[in-house]
UniProtKB/TrEMBL annotation:
Residues 13-59 form the PAS domain. One of its GO terms (cellular component) is plasma membrane. This is diguanylate cyclase. It catalyses: 2 GTP = 3',3'-c-di-GMP + 2 diphosphate. CDD domains: GGDEF, PAS. One of its GO terms (biological process) is negative regulation of bacterial-type flagellum-dependent cell motility.
């Protein structure tokens, strides 16, 4: 049981206890006069800052402790609160006597005597540098995670757009925009192998001032020679590619692979990231991050290219005749309907040339189906030679062909049909050692709108003219307008 009543200590006891607190507290304590001039500091303050009383006596504590990175707003808040003689508490960055920064949880309290006269300020300061370091670390982690989340969202969005591209041109448009957004500090280029695979051709570039050669040789790139992505500027042992002009600039070379075959190269250049361009640790951190993103992008672009190619192949199969390579009936019907709408809106000419191989059955009967297929392919090849400037050759089935002639009036279509007829008549074909003589065609020409104001009617008029050519002795061209005149 306590032998002394502790509820009302005497003045001597209070002074003794206060001295104990001031001496042994782990918080730094400064006692200042009403003008904020330091009068006394405790041992904890000296341990925290390295300053003894002689260093700070008669000076405003902030003028000694604050430094170049101290928040000016924090200093102003302290001054304002002291001027208004009110308590203030905040975190402030201070500096020790040897110049080392540390964070302090500072509390400044005005002290009044029994008559209400302001006599002192008491400042207590606790070192919270470790807490601030953890907060900074957590903030950096949150910021890094936010960046990663943003990158993941951009990559997901890029992937969605890449896989939605219906054509190679659309794909290139997405690549340009996506790569410039994902890696804004870099210039880039996409190369695709040419038909002979002897060179890679520049098909897209992006960035501020991209300077890339129009063609590069496969042996000029370490990535293509080694068969894997190559990063110049990240390893202690490295050699620049021959297609790179600025040998000290960091860059990435990433092969583009579709269906297991290398079809191209993505080249990403970090101009301004040379050894003297960025602090070394920042340069390495940025490049490593961009390397990871680039690898993902190269993979996505590779998959997207494969997807576009497959989609193109499937589309081609659906609209191309397998034997001749000409457009098929499905393509013809859809395209002709659209072109007739355009012709009506713009008042432009449009013609159809119906083509049929004369006595085609005899080639199959006398020489076999291989001979018949040869005849169809050779006639189709001649039609493809003429299929330019709005002329689209199509095979509707069997030995029946048609030429959709956009922008060509009936007189021009007749001339085209006659040229095709004469070229077919000049063919000299041999199948399995047998000469295929007398390959001939008949043609019927109909024009929009005079011979028909819709596709069905126009096709019927072209067929009627074709039948008239056959009945008239074959190997000739007749226009539907001539039948009407007759």
């Amino acid at each position: 049981m306590c032998a002394k009543d502790c509820s009302e200590p005497d003045n001597q006891s209070e002074a003794f206890f206060a001295a104990l607190v001031a001496r042994h507290s782990s918080d730094g304590v400064i006692i200042s006069d009403p003008d904020r001039k330091a009068l006394w500091v405790n041992a904890a303050f000296t341990a925290q800052t390295g300053y003894v009383l002689d260093d700070i006596c008669g000076k405003e504590p902030g003028s000694v402790l604050q430094g170049p990175e101290t928040d000016p707003d924090a200093a102003r808040m302290i001054s304002l609160a002291c001027a208004q003689r009110r308590e203030v508490r905040l975190d402030v960055l201070n500096y020790t006597r040897d110049g080392k920064p540390f964070w302090g949880d500072l509390k400044v309290t005005p002290v009044y005597d029994a008559n209400g006269l302001h006599t002192h300020f008491i400042s207590t300061m606790r070192d919270i540098s470790e807490r601030k370091a953890l907060e900074q670390q957590n903030e950096e982690m949150r910021h890094a995670e936010a960046l990663r989340q943003s990158e993941r969202q951009l990559l997901a969005l890029t992937s969605e757009w890449l896989y939605s591209a219906k054509s190679f041109d659309e794909l290139l448009m997405v690549v340009r925009r996506a790569m410039h957004t994902l890696i804004p500090e870099a210039d880039g280029a996409l190369y695709i192998y040419g038909a002979q695979r002897s060179t890679l051709e520049l098909v897209a570039s992006w960035g501020t001032i991209p300077e890339f050669p129009d063609h590069i040789l496969p042996d000029d790139c370490w990535a293509l020679r080694r068969g894997r992505a190559y990063a110049f500027g990240l390893k202690p042992i490295q050699f620049p590619c021959d297609h790179v002009h600025h040998k000290d600039t960091p860059y990435f070379c990433l092969p583009i692979i579709a269906h297991g075959e290398t079809i191209g190269l993505m080249h990403i250049v970090f101009d301004g990231f040379e050894e003297g361009g960025l602090m070394r640790h920042m340069r390495a951190e940025v490049l490593n991050n961009r390397w990871d993103i680039s690898l993902i992008c190269a993979e996505q672009i590779s998959l997207a290219v494969a997807n576009v190619r497959l989609r193109h192949e499937l589309h081609e199969r659906s609209v191309r005749d397998a034997l001749t390579g000409l457009w098929n009936r499905r393509w013809f019907t859809e395209r002709a309907a659209r072109e007739m709408v355009t012709a009506e809106r713009e008042g432009a000419p449009l013609s159809l040339i119906a083509v049929d191989v004369d006595h085609f059955k005899q080639f199959n009967d006398r020489f076999g189906h291989d001979a018949g297929d040869l005849v169809l392919r050779e006639v189709a090849a001649l039609m493809q030679d003429l299929g330019q400037n709005g002329v689209y050759p199509c095979r509707l089935g069997g030995e029946e062909f048609t030429l959709l002639c956009v922008g060509l009036p009936v007189a021009g279509a007749v001339d085209l049909a006659e040229e095709l007829r004469s070229r077919v008549a000049a063919l000299e074909l041999v199948s399995n050692g047998a000469s295929l003589e007398d390959v001939r065609i008949s043609c019927g020409v109909a024009a929009y709108p005079q011979d028909g104001n819709n596709l069905d009617h126009l096709m019927k008029r072209a067929d009627t003219a074709l039948y008239a050519a056959k009945e008239g002795g074959r190997n000739r061209t007749i226009a539907a307008a001539d039948l009407s005149a007759g």
